[in-house]
Amino acid sequence: MLNYSIQMKRKQCTRLKEHDNLSVIPYIRGRLVFADLVARAIEEEGFEQVIVDLPFFMNRSNLWENAVKMFPHVSSLLFRKEDGSFAAFPFTPADAACIALSAVQTQKDWGRDIELQCIDDSRVIHYPRGSLSFPKVGPNDDYSVFINGLDVFCNEQYDQLEEAWAALGKEQRFFNEYRAGLVSDRLKSYLKNGKKTLFVCEYSLWWLVKKIVMNKYAVPRQYFSYPWKDVKGVIMIDDSLRLWKRGALDDYPAVVARFYDIMRTGLLSSFSKIRTIEDIINKSLTHDLYEKTCGGSSVRRSLTFHKYLRNTSLSSGKISSIMLSHLCDAANSCLGRKAAKRMIRRFFSYPEPAGKRIFKYVTIREGSSIVTLNNKVNDREAEIYLSSIIKVNSYSLEEVYDGYLMPDREMRIFNRFHHHPEREILKFLGYSKAITWSIKADYYQYELASKKVREMQAQQARKTRIKKSYGAISDGIHWKATINARSLGEDAVYIRYGSRSRGKRQRKFDAYTPVIFIFTDNFKGHWYRQIMSTNSVQRHKDLYPGEPLHNNCTASDTIYHALYSLNNIKKLKWGHIDKRDISSMALLYNRADMDNARYKAIAGRPNRFVCRMAPLSDPIVTRFQMTEAGIAWAVKYAEHTVFVVAKKGWTPSEQLSSFAKSRNIEIRDVSLSLFNPDIIERLRTMYFTSPQLKKHPKRDEIVEKFMD
Amino acid sequence: MTLDNIEEFEKIEIKGKTVLVPYPTKPPEFMFIGRKDVINKTLAAWLNIPGSTPLNFRLFGPPGIGKNAMVYELARILKKDIYIINGHDELGPEDIACSATMTSKGKIDYVASTLFAAMLRGGICFFDEIGKAPQSALDPLASVLDDRRAITSVLAGIHLKAHPEFLFCSALNEDEETGVGLPGFIDERTRPAIHVGYPSSKELELILRNRFSASDPWIEVFISEFYIEKLSTRTAITLLGFACRLARSSNGKTGMLSNNDIRSYLLAAYAHVSDGTAQALAAERKELIKNKKEGAEDNAELFYTNEKETVH
Questions:
Q1: Given A327, B31, B62, B265, which is the most exposed site by the fewest CB atoms within 10 A?
Q2: In which band, very low, low, confident or very high, does the pLDDT at B308 lie, cut at 50, 70 and 90?
Q3: CB of B124 closer than 8 Å to CB of B75
Q4: Which ipTM score applies to this complex?
Q5: Which tens digits make up the pLDDT trace of A652-663?
Q6: Cis ω on the peptide bond leading into residue A220 (within 30° of 0)?
Q7: Is A596 an 8 Å CB contact of chain B?
Q8: A552 in contact with B at a CB cutoff of 8 Å?
Q9: What strand order describes the sheet that includes B17-21?
Q10: A360-374, A447-461, A540-554, B282-296: least confident range
């Protein structure tokens, strides 16, 4: 798709003249490109010592070993800071420092003698919030590292850091200088052993450390003294999507999972982020092509999607990567909303462990040591401990390092396609098996379809019919047809006739003109249901049974406005959402009004057009066959016309025709084939919600997330 | 009476046949504001990549939000001529390709469609309201919008291969897109389908300031009064213009009015535009604003009561 090949993915690192034995890979946190570089360097370059910019206390005990052993499952070291806020160190395979730990572990397992040192300040967990952050450095296509080289990529970033440094506040300067001074001292001391060393360091830290190591920046002698106390924490298996939102899992979690799988096989040189993205896209498209019968994508749409995605990537200057926003736009506009949803969800899939979340809990003590309090924590104990330290939702936890969030746009896309929070809401509402309530989105689809039916009928009435004249002039000469005929050598006059059906009364169609949709010929195994609309008194009784009414002066009232047949009900999400396969739908009122507006719109009509008798108890309706019961019901309450949208060739039975004739109602049929198959499929699916969910203010949004 | 505004079609000879080819449309002169995101998407669809034909996108969204203006802006950016076809009930296949006309001398000339002209000269063809055209009229588009990029007029006996620079786009209203949709073969060929939503209040303000440069207090009151509405650009311009005219016709001037006066003129104009009384609208709006301010979501069940269903 994009002009990028694996051959371009060369190994790279930065070297310093002053230290022959040192190679450095400056990285951006959570970006896979750098994790890839580090993993390959450790695997292929024969380093004897790896130094990472993780806090010094991680050298003690086997804290990080435990975390990386859980890969690809992601975890976090959570702890409470002195000021009472909570912070987290994420461990993910997309982070260069974390993958360095994992790669060293793997090399050790294979018998290689390789050391690992964490040299960052242990007190980093006590630094004030925001003290290490720089003003935002311009966005960069990090895959350009493989095209322009690591040094070019970093130099561009360093130039921006240089400018940003001048604008930093006093406190930020202090903490950055203090930290860089400490790291450079430790780095120099480890380099003295002469071992071939790889230093994996976050790029903004390395920018300052490099200057200090090369004696180009004199750090003032300064100390950060902090009354160090025991810091309690837990290592817990984290939610991959939460970490993705924090920017710790690169662009696509599914690609990170694939990267880790390949890394474990030792074939990293064959890994390509772009190719992996393409694989996921192709799998999704192939699946959709296979599912074409149920509204999937065609070959043409797939090709258009590929072209458009390439164009948007190229025009935004992202020559070798695909942004989520581009992917989402292209999928939405070329494949359709449903296929886009399926594709985007594939990109967010990541292995999630079943079972307990707490892995271990620890105390970090003054003197930079870690005490593991208990390795085998029972779940109850862990839950109590966790709830004691995390009273806030873990989604609001801070990370230790700043500038770590996914861009807003990506977050919005995630929120649009993923139903993580919505699942939690529904879970919280408990199980439901009560009566269900219809949703606006379904009515809206029927409103549009009914409107189209009315328009088609009006168009039909206006349509000019043309024929060759043999003397008669009827409604006048049709000049266009006559000239066209002449140009083709025919010497004839064409006339218009039959327009506006002379003598026939023009009928007005509106939202009260019943429309019946029949989607199938075979009603075997189908059954009918009815939908009613109630006034506010009855609605209150239904929604809040047992609760007194504020204003009880009005009598309750119920009117019926829809009758439908179905053959399948699927209960979703603890019974809060019902998905129903509709085979026919009869609507007496086809506007998407909801609540009292719908009730008022129907109840305000003359009584003979308002249905207050349950259709399924109506003897007039029940004497008709299953296929025509809905039409008969509509005929009973229609003013002059009912529209029947059915497969081509549908005709009413004699019984129905005579019933309609007796009530002076015209039955007009419209072919179902005039509708787009995607729209028919949507009309055939209806969703209903539980009373609990109905009362939720974000009900429509929640249901929409679970629609196919 | 002047005939300056009337322009004849260009007469060209194609294989012995006289074909009248229309000139490009002159888009209205106004400054286009905002919508960078959508403009970028459309430009990406038309990106010129060797060996690859440009995509024929379609814009969809509520009426009056500037879909046409966006296409005019694209023509300005790309410095290309624009040719517009309007979709309607009576459109026939020959209107899409080539129709015939009779001269005063009884001779038959052929009249090329705007699509034909755009294909011939390498301009942009913009099919406005494509959702309103009957399917039979859209049939000739099949060969234009796929890799053939050619059109055949049986009437004129002409087969035209599109100029390499030819571009196509279309627009339709949101209910046509999300409702019944376009016929399958056109739906497939006019993708990406790019959604154009309501302008943000900031963008709307900028547009209004550009159109009504001298009426700052009017715009301020308008924005504060209608901030929760989903107003299309066209409705906003109409409303504001109409309110100013109402004020002028009753006062003779618009500059010295208090904010309350401006508000009342705006509400009166709104009542005319949206077919309701000013008092009822004011009450409705007051209620909405109050609910919004008081965090009405807490007792939102009052506003979210829907139909219930019973099982028999």
A1: B31
A2: very low
A3: yes
A4: 0.85
A5: 999 999 999 999
A6: no
A7: yes
A8: no
A9: B10-14, B17-21, B108-112, B98-102
A10: B282-296
Higher pLDDT: A411 or A672? It is: A672
**Rounded Cα gap, residues A31 and A139, in angstroms:** 13
Kindly report the three-state secondary structure assignment for every residue of B49-82: ECCECCCCEEEEECCCCCHHHHHHHHHHHHCCCE
- Residue A50 makes CB contacts below 8 A (sequence gap 6+) with A42, A100, A103, A104, A114, A115, A116, A117, A197, A198, A200
pLDDT tens track for A32-77: 999 999 999 998 888 999 999 988 888 876 778 888 888 999 988 8
B284 in A contact zone (CB under 8 Å): no
For residue A333, give the DSSP letter.
Answer: I
Is it true that the peptide bond before B192 is cis, omega within 30 degrees of 0? yes
Cα–Cα distance for residue pair A611/A613, rounded to 1 Å: 6
CA distance B296 to B302: 9
Confidence check: pLDDT of B311 > 50: no
* Average pLDDT of the residues in A356-381: 60
Q: Is B184 on the interface with A (CB under 8 A)?
A: yes
Sequence-ordered list of residues with C-beta below 8 angstroms from that of A218, at least 6 positions apart, any chain: none
Burial environment of residue B211 by CB neighbours within 10 A (0 to 12, 13 to 18, 19 or more) = middle
DSSP assignment of A152-192 equals HHHHHHHHHHHHHHHT--HHHHHHHHHHHHHHHHHHHHHHT
* Distance in angstroms (rounded) separating the CA atoms of residues A87 and A74: 16
Roughly how many angstroms between the first and final C-alpha of chain B, as a whole number? Answer: 74
A569, A578 Cβ separation under 8 angstroms: yes
Q: Which residue of B has its CA nearest to A313?
A: B44
Single-letter amino acid code for the residue at B168: F
Q: Closest Cα partner for A95 from A25, A180, A160?
A: A25
Among B22, B1, B3, B27, residue whose Cα is nearest residue B11: B22
Distance CA A236, CA A358 (A): 4
pLDDT digits (tens, 9 = 90+) for B88-124: 888 888 889 988 887 777 788 889 999 999 999 999 9
Looking only at the bridges linking them, the beta strands covering A197-202 and A19-27 are parallel
Residues A255 and A62: their CA atoms lie apart, in Å, by: 28
Mean pLDDT of chain A: 81
Q: Which of A488, A530, A678 sits opposite B310 (nearest CB)?
A: A530
Choose among A308, A332, A448: nearest Cβ to B55. A308
The predicted model scores a pTM of 0.79
CA quadruple A104, A108, A109, A110: dihedral sign: positive
